[in-house]
Amino acid sequence: MKKWFVAIAGNIGVGKSSLTGMLGERLGWEPFFEAVSDNPYLADFYQDMARWSFHSQVFFLSRRLRHHHQLLQRPYSVVQDRTVYEDAEVFARNLYRQGLMSERDYRSYRELYEVLSALLPPPDLVVYLRASVPTLMARIAQRGRPFERSITPEYLEQLNELYEEWIGTFNLCPILTVPSDRLDFVTNSHHLDLIVEKVLEKLQGREVVEFDP
Asked: Of residues 44, 81, 193, 212, which has the active-site annotation?
């Protein structure tokens, strides 16, 4: 049986972790979840973002690249919560655009990212969960994580714009875009069935029609 490597991408609160777990359970794949608590720069970063943004992003990049490499070695199918590409194309780029990472640091970071990511085979499929800011805010509020209370609609909109820019140019592997404003796979099993069906169609190289829940 062929093994697959599928990565779930999308903004904060869109449901990446939920879909990772559900696809893993439904398809018998190993789920691999994002972990940020072990970043030794994170506390310093939140105290002084301009000073520590480069250090924090390099740590995230190296950790994500290591995980990506490890997942490629798995003998069975895996589904990953967040891709290595999002760190660079969305979050590091946003820090640079907001003036929280210097030009010199950002150029060094990009060079490192581009060299290392070029050496790694991409996933077989990226599932991009697209959602509007009101949907993201509602889901963030629903899950009630204290450290997410300070997230603003403006910040989510900035990230959404960067996600769309990245997805619009990403060509390393096929992309399945899920309209998460109208597909609530957490509470609606039919919506999950649809996503599973489209994921398998994409992996098998079949043409995927629009979602129609």
From this structure: 81
